[in-house]
Amino acid sequence: MSHSIKIVGTGLLGTSLGLALARHGITAGLVNQSKANLRLAIEYGAGEEFQGDPELVIVCVPPDITAEKVIEQLEMHPGAIVTDVASVKSDIAAQVAAGSEHAELYVGSHPMAGREKGGVGSARADLFFARPWVITPTEHNPQVAVNRIRDLALQLGALPSVMSPDAHDKAVAAVSHLPQLLASALAARLTGVADTEISLAGQGLRDTARIAASDPGLWVQILSQNASNVAPLIGDLATELNELHSSLSDIEASGALAKIHSLLERGNEGVARIPGKHGGKYVDYHQMTVVIDDSPGALASLLTFIGDVGVNLEDLKLEHSPGAQIGLVEIQIIPSAAEHLSEQLTANGWRLV
Amino acid sequence: MSHSIKIVGTGLLGTSLGLALARHGITAGLVNQSKANLRLAIEYGAGEEFQGDPELVIVCVPPDITAEKVIEQLEMHPGAIVTDVASVKSDIAAQVAAGSEHAELYVGSHPMAGREKGGVGSARADLFFARPWVITPTEHNPQVAVNRIRDLALQLGALPSVMSPDAHDKAVAAVSHLPQLLASALAARLTGVADTEISLAGQGLRDTARIAASDPGLWVQILSQNASNVAPLIGDLATELNELHSSLSDIEASGALAKIHSLLERGNEGVARIPGKHGGKYVDYHQMTVVIDDSPGALASLLTFIGDVGVNLEDLKLEHSPGAQIGLVEIQIIPSAAEHLSEQLTANGWRLV
What homologous superfamily is domain B5-163 in, according to CATH? Predict the structure, then answer.
């Protein structure tokens, strides 16, 4: 058979795309440099070994060889629309424009659906479900090509939006690449901290440093392609921290405390702008904490109870309890439900806090 | 009646201490500058208006007036042991040593149990349960006084540890104060970012910036008392970011990518050192993601199912889905349970990913 969709590269994203398409009855044609990985992806159910004449090619290879592979595919399959999934867009768009006579059929895209772990084994059919999928056309793309990528995103349950490659790269520098570098820089300082000091770490440090566990090899490629957008942000932050260092080093100086207070206040404002659940702004939910023991079903039994009394959880977090075999469950609910739920929990023997 | 335990200050910590002691049948004597707040704490059940001759005084006032209040209590109640709950210890210990002839009866302590929101209304009887409670004696304290505070911590379910005031302040600078300032500095940059850019934010940014929502007034007091420990850490980080800025600004230069790669790798190492659930190191749990709809009981029904098949959740996170009325539940389990759970979920119609 001839495959209408060709996926180049069967890592996390390529394999996930194949699995997602298979759910819609579409058998993708797969190619991969490593034959062993290709076979693995096929065994996973992501598609078949590619043959034929595709109408759409999705290039899912590491960022630093994406442009080269896109150009190769444009030459190999005249008339086919080619897209990619790399997380930086301008550099690749420029390389393709310079390197191919068919650049108008390349539409860049960025499904924002990575995971801390890569590889075939981490692939999931629902990886793109309910996640943003940015499409980054240029003025040379025919509308039909842009629509084809948007339809692909919608078919896989993603939330497509359209931006220029430059606007996309500027946005991800601020909301993704800058936090990555800060988390890494913070976590890197922990390599020199004594065990007794680390033992006092709480949820604040855990959350702030979490994404420092990401793959260095992949991130070097991403950052090198978006260096021009990330550099000024890091520069501004370094300046901010230098000023903070001055204020802290001479804390009795006039204005030192006011400067620190102002930074903390701006932090309050900034964090309030981050979209929360379902894309909305953070609502001021009511938070309560319930103690459960650390056994199978304990959390379930709590949540069953909460569901039974008709209250919807807006968010939930398990608190880690250093040294204790219990769990603290932090739940967020709408304020109007707080009194009702609190009464019901207490009346039924839950340890509420 | 005469109260054997006196609590000075009925904010979040003082009121929570009173509530916790009440659970153990101890009625605390309360004092507070604002009579309205005092009455509120009494109505909450945190104790009674103080009278008599206490054996223990717990000072729970803002950090910048803690030393003054400790000294006042040492003079007012000769022979009573006095402790406090402030989150920076050396400065207060020095002020008390200089300002009181009874400083040997002051034992500093720091129950690490704050919340992003303060005040009587946020108080909880279980605030200290399963949390670290650092006791910071000096060489002048009799052992009996130190033991009294340790017993208090144990009685309230906290996990006491003993450190010198200096060692404590150095530790919290690294694991608490530095992350706070970084999160605030990161979030502060978001005030200038366009809405369309912010809309691409994901869980990474949300986690990294979360604690930027903390109270600026309280944090200015904390940071000003620990400025000498925090300043060099911020200075080191500013230097690291300056070097990163240089590497990113001239990304083609020899060694630029290697430097960035090295930072990311050190970040991997550092984050792996943060204690996870129950104080252990992060185990490499198996992660899977399940789709649920956003209705009361949906999460409970999933977790009931997981409990029913005998699998213990190590961690759980609700993923926010921008624009979609569904939830993605990320669960962490021990690797050996992964295949069993995955089969059971799929066989019973759960949308697994």
Answer: NAD(P)-binding Rossmann-like Domain (3.40.50.720)
